[in-house]
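## Example pair
The file below holds two records. Each record gives the amino-acid sequence first, followed by its structure token line.
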Amino acid sequence: MTLSGAAVLAAVVALAGCGAPATPGGGRSAAPTTSVSSSAAASGTGSGTATATDSPASATATPSATLPEGWKTFTTSDGKLAFDLPSEWVVKDPAGQTPQGGGVFVEIRNPAGKSMATLRTNMVVGAECMKKQPYGMYDSEQLPALKQAGGTPRFTFESRQDDTATDPAKMTMLAYGITSAPEPTGPTACPMAHFFSWPPSGAMFGGVYDPFDTTPGNPPNVDTPEAYMETPEYKNIRTMITSLRPAA
């Protein structure tokens, strides 16, 4: 059971503070040029555009060696990061107001319009552990391609339990993303901080899981994190986020 996706994302993003990073962690406008290369394009089929509103690609990243068939590679507009995603998924760039001082802000949606994840860079972040809560850690993988001097970030799919909530839909918050925060130990953990160390300060790439969301585009009959992890949607999201790398 979980809080609404928008509320979870707001809670995670709210951890982005003003000042130097402590625990690494966190409107729409016209879409500018984006950068996409795809396995279909490599074979001479398909297009290299990311969204219906994107203008033609201005640059491409080298696709990863394990790019799944029918996937494409997206390069951020500043040319610094790239990731792979299913060809039918749509990239909105920019997805909203970018951080002060620049950076990128993109959102990835499935064909039904459901948000799969957002990527933001150049975020000044700082998180305080005001209250620990019971947690669940369902998935975790280190991402060496994003290693910085302070350590190696990891992809996680995790939850936090609010024991004070009486509404079942608000008892548990679940989210997936990249984090530089230490992996929790013991029965409780600090709030989720899906932010990772990335020059010049920090970045985020992740999204939320809401089994109470019944809008079109959601996997049917999925009501637990364990069941969600077996769906093609989660597997595609995981492959996409863990493919994030410097755009060489």
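Second record, same layout:
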Amino acid sequence: MSALRGVHGRPSRLAWVVSGAVIALALTACSSGPEKPKPAQLAPVAALMGTTVAWSSQVGASHAALAPRAVAGRVFAAGSAGTVVALDASTGKDVWRLNLAQPIAAGVGSDGELAAVITQGNDLVTIRDGQEVWRVRLPARSFTAPLVAGKRVFVLTADRTVRAFDGQTGARLWVQSRPAEPLVLSQSGALLAVGDTLVVGLAGRLAGLNPLNGSIRWDVPVATSRGTNEVERLVDVVGPVSRVGNSVCARAYSAAVACVDAGRGTVAWAQPAQGATGLHGDDRLVFGTESDGRVLAWQRASGERGWEVDRLKHRGLTAPLAVGRVVAVGDSQGLVHLLSREDGSEMTRMTADGSAILVAPVLAGDALVVQTRNGGVYAWRPQ
């Protein structure tokens, strides 16, 4: 398929990169199936709860690997052309703003002080107080925001390699690699800290690493590759993941949803699922959106189905965010839908600048924050 493109890494770890959208287009082109389904028509808004726009900002045109991050009273965001900002989560005003003058491939990761992004030229760049601190050239591309934690910066690259760098100096601390599959997704994966363990998605598996030296503590499957060709066998873990304590629930692309005990390194349950975006949840339920636009809830403890709604089918939904009594999802038409956490019924919906919302909303204090394709960063608060 001509839509595939190579990862710029070591020749021995050469892989191919493909996005979920490219896969869908390629499969459609090879068939004589029906036209792409039209987005479901929406009923008049329920308006069962009130919201108001708290603030908005602009970072420039964006893409799906640039998710905002809210931490320590700030919202960190980036635009694809090179702008990186730290916004005050209460007011939306700039704490600092920096233009790297280079296209950005992935980010932003931050611990509230040090921020990190990855450029399309494979540079890992760190920023503090609006000033570049250090940069390191990576040997492969990355589509996952760096993780800044414990005075270290961790990076997951598309060649199935995890790298750790000293947060102060940029010195490389360790590298952990695994054999690369022929295809990898060009979308965000899983990279997070759970206690003293670094949890990372590697192909269709979750692995727990020692953050001090990169050694593997445990490695469990979320899904197993199946199918007759490389596209059908693609089961990368996609972000974001839902973490409550040691319970980490993740999605393997278009294959399964599973919850893992990150303390023991064991799979609690796994269920077949056909989604391409990550998960969110609480201590009772895990929420996700399927590729056809259904929104599902699973019991976190058992994996049993909680509820399902299909009135948002084919609207290009983001991964969800569970907050308060609602679950928030964005769509490709530029709307944010607030659903009841109990049964998925509509509570209300909002619109930003009319361009697609590509990544899951985030919670910043008491505000719900989204970033649009056109680069608008919008925060709403309940009334």
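Notes on the second record: Helices lie at 20-29. Confidence is low (pLDDT under 50) at residues 1-15, 20-32.
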